[in-house]
């Protein structure tokens, strides 16, 4: 049975306060403060797969509950996400190209630092 899914149904907007949430769910996994307090509860369960798959873990439960609590201590927003309705993240395939031309400030600075490291007393013959 999934703990967060059952317990979040007992939370009512604009009537449940911080103390009720703490009594029902305990302390949150993480907190953040913007305009209102955002409490994040995370529930994850994994299961080991068979020996044929080399014992890799399989995600069985991945629930996240987001609770927004206003400055008066009342629950004003509740969002529940389970493993089925979480959006998959797509990462950009683009890469940043680094290029130093001989005219750039960075190239000049690094070249002078390299020269000073190689010849700290400046005794090398100048060409």
3D architecture notes:
- With 127 residues, the protein is an alpha+beta fold.
- The chain has a domain at 3-81: 2-Layer Sandwich (Beta-lactamase Inhibitory Protein, Chain:B, domain 1), CATH 3.30.1450.
- 22% of the residues lie in helices and 28% in strands.
- The chain is built from three helices and four strands.
- The chain has helices at 3-8, 18-25, 105-118; strands at residues 30-33, 37-48, 57-69, 75-81.
- It has a four-stranded antiparallel sheet.
- A hairpin with a 3-residue loop joins β1 and β2.
Quick summary:
By secondary structure, this protein is of the alpha+beta class.
Number of strands: 4
Number of helices: 3
Order of helices and strands: HHEEEEH
The dominant shape is elongated
Beta-strand proportion: 25-35%
Radius of gyration: 28 Å
Main beta sheet, described? 4 strands, antiparallel
State the helical fraction. 10-25%
Strand order of the largest sheet: 1-2-3-4
From the 3D coordinates, which CATH architecture of one domain would you assign?
2-Layer Sandwich
The residue ranges in which pLDDT falls below 50 over 5 or more consecutive positions are none
Distance between the termini: 79 Å
CATH class (first level) name of one domain: Alpha Beta
Average of pLDDT: 78
């Amino acid at each position: 049975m999934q703990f967060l899914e059952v317990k979040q149904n007992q939370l009512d907007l604009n009537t449940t306060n911080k103390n009720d949430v703490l009594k029902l769910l305990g302390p949150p996994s993480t907190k953040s403060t913007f305009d209102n307090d955002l409490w994040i509860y995370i529930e994850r369960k994994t299961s080991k797969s068979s020996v044929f798959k080399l014992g890799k873990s399989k995600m069985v439960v991945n629930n996240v509950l987001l609770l927004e609590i206003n400055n008066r201590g009342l629950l004003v927003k509740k969002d529940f996400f389970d493993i089925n309705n979480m959006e998959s993240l797509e990462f950009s395939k683009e890469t940043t190209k680094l290029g130093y031309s001989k005219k750039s400030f960075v190239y000049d600075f690094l070249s002078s630092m390299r020269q000073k490291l190689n010849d700290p007393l400046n005794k090398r013959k100048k060409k």
